[in-house]
Amino acid sequence: MTDVDAALTSAFSAEWGRVVATLIRLTGDFALAEDAAQDAFVAAARRWPVDGVPDRPGAWLTTTARNGALDRLRRATTEARKLREVAAMDALELHGHVAEDSGEASAVTDDRLRLIFTCCHPALPLEARVALTLRTLCGLTVPEIARAFGVGEAAMTKRLVRARQKIAHAGIPYRVPADDVLAERLDGVLAVLYLLFTEGYSSTAGPGVVREDLSAEAIRLTRVLAELVPDDAEVHGLLALELAHDARRAARTDAAGELVPLEEQDRTLWDAGQAAAAADVLARARTLTADPGPYLLQAEVAVLHATAATAEATDWAAVAGLYAQLTRRAPSPWVDLSRAVAVAMADGVDAGLALLDELGASGGLDGNHYLPAARADLLRRAGRHPESAEAYRAALTRVTNDAERRYLRRRLAEVS
Question: Cα torsion at 302, 340, 193, 366 (round to 10°)?
């Protein structure tokens, strides 16, 4: 990777949300903001290798995107109000980047977290505001967001379009919320951070399993949120969940970058200090509620895994019981999939396969490779190799991550 490539990657991670948020606030148009920001990054990829990386990449990108937005509006409309709004950007001081909000005082001091609270507007359905925030501020692609919600790309595209249309038609303001209404946006913010971490921990596509920049940013933001909302059990539950999973990151792939399943991981590579920190945060979360929510329940599972001395020492019965609670508290096809695997480990393969058959009949994960991959793994464990091979082949037709594809091929070779 060249210095310019590294600068572009860093700028995208640090500045995408800021640039888009600024343009949305000043134009009121989500689609225009995203298109202009994308054009600015394309321009940077073309000009920075020739002109050099600017001293303030954020300011360069914002100015370029601003000018692009103005050009688009001039070509598309003669509506004077819109033109004045975008032209007014010329009067702003670009100290590294344009300010992301209108200057209201807020207890949320972290720039990125302020933007997420801003985008998670309660006028939108929860799933829509989370998906829109992930796309607009976090830079996740439509396929990545679709996988997170367990839906097809076409369906997710429609949801994003409808969300943008509702914002435009209803005149929903894009600004930092007052402190007294932050609580009503907390569920959306937690979902954004959870899905941002999940995509970083197990990426939808690309050469590697992990995108450390995403998972690290999610953990950082959740820490900030835990300081902002110190008495919320779900906030601490999410932080414990992230820390426990991230403690195993170094062992998830081998030296060649190949995926290593949980039971085969070298546990000496796990970050014992981080696992202990996860357990401490989880203990704090337990004291804050008598009715654990979905993030706290998932944290319980993650900490059980992260603190088990060996794969055989894992308390699978407890894990299965926690997933059973989770199916009642926050039902989803992903929870059903995890529960089926845990039940198979606790009560036998046949019990797990029966649950996978129910999940398959429901259509909840149609088109996703994880369901046939889980089925293939359980059939392999049961010694039913021809059926296992068939399921591995089905999973290979759906997988989009290169490392996971290679792992499935290795397993297929074993049972073939």
Answer: 160
Q: What is the pTM of this model?
A: 0.80
What sign does the CA torsion over 48, 204, 147, 264 have? negative
d(CA 344, CA 20): 46
- pLDDT-derived band at 94, boundaries 50, 70, 90: very low
Q: Is the pLDDT of residue 39 over 70?
A: yes
For residues 323 and 332, what is the distance between their CA atoms, to the nearest angstrom?
11
Are the CB atoms for 309 and 328 separated by under 8 Å?
no
Place of tokens 């969300």: 163
What does the pLDDT read at residue 26?
72
- How many CA atoms within 13 Å lie on the side-chain side of 8? 17
Output the 3-class SS for 43-92.
Answer: HHHHHHHHHCCCCCHHHHHHHHHHHHHHHHHHHHCCCHHHHHHHHHHHHC
What is the reported pLDDT for 96?
42
Give the 3-state secondary structure of 323-356.
HHHHHHHCCCHHHHHHHHHHHHHHHCHHHHHHHH
Task: Give the separation between CA 276 and CA 244, rounded to whole angstroms.
Answer: 8
Residue length, the chain? 416
Neighbour count for residue 387 (Cβ, 10 Å): 16
Sequence-ordered list of residues with C-beta below 8 angstroms from that of 343, at least 6 positions apart, any chain: 320, 323, 351, 352, 355
Identify the sign of the CA torsion 114, 117, 123, 128: positive
Confidence bin at 102 (pLDDT 50/70/90): very low
Structure tokens at 415: 């049972």
Q: Quick one: pLDDT at residue 87?
A: 52
- Residue 259 pairs in a beta bridge with 253
